[in-house]
Amino acid sequence: MLNPPRDAEMGNSRACMCNTGDLCTGTRARRFCPRLTGNFSIPFKETMSVYDKLKELNITLPPVSVPAAAYVPYVQTGNLVFLSGHIARKDGKPWAAQFGRDITTEEGKAAARAVAIDLMGTLHAACGGDLNRVQRIVKVMSLVNSTGDFTEQ
């Protein structure tokens, strides 16, 4: 889910964005939002920027994949973003392998990490270049190709 634009941009005086990253509306706002309650003594935890964490982990986001044929890397509807399937790549080429036959568990972990970073790059593009707008990840699905006797998924 993406955070909606800040209340000033929306002209909405009954909603605000506290430094918690939550949209302050409804019950939560009436109880906790300093601007709406007038209680500025409630401490809010400071959150690390997504980009600070990526830098700390020495991760550089790749550019979004170029759409081919009917494939699109993501679709946004309302404040939800759906990312299309991504595949592991090795040396810029699709990495097709099967656990228990072609690759080790450690190589599979590296492939999964590469896919996750690629997904973050796509999400970055889908969010207009601001991953800090992401409020929640609703679902992650992963498919693992393995032999029938492989048990380390």
Radius of gyration, whole Å: 20 Å
Order of helices and strands: HEEHHHEEEEH
Oligomer: single chain
Q: What is the mean pLDDT? A: 77
Please work out how many helical segments DSSP would assign: 5
Order of neighbouring strands in the sheet with most strands = 1-2
Could you tell me the strand content as a percent range?
Answer: 5-15%
Q: How much helical structure, as a percent, in the residues?
A: 25-40%
Structure, described:
- The radius of gyration is 20 Å and the shape is globular.
- The protein starts with 6 loop residues before the first helix and ends in a 27-residue tail after the last helix.
- The protein is built from 5 helices and 6 strands.
- By secondary structure, it is of the alpha+beta class.
- Mean pLDDT is 77; it is low at 5-15 and 26-30.
Essential attributes:
153 residues, 6 strands, two-stranded antiparallel sheet, alpha+beta
List the helices and strands and how they pair.
Blueprint: H1 7-10, E1 16-17, E2 23-24, H2 26-32, H3 34-37, H4 50-56, E3 74-77, E4 80-83, E5 89-90, E6 93-94, H5 105-126
Antiparallel strand pairs: 1-2, 3-4, 5-6
Tell me briefly what this model is:
The chain has 153 residues and is an alpha+beta fold. It has helices at residues 7-10, 26-32, 34-37, 50-56, 105-126; strands at 16-17, 23-24, 74-77, 80-83, 89-90, 93-94. The chain has a two-stranded antiparallel sheet. The chain has a two-stranded antiparallel ribbon with strand order 3-4. The protein has a two-stranded antiparallel sheet with strand order 5-6.
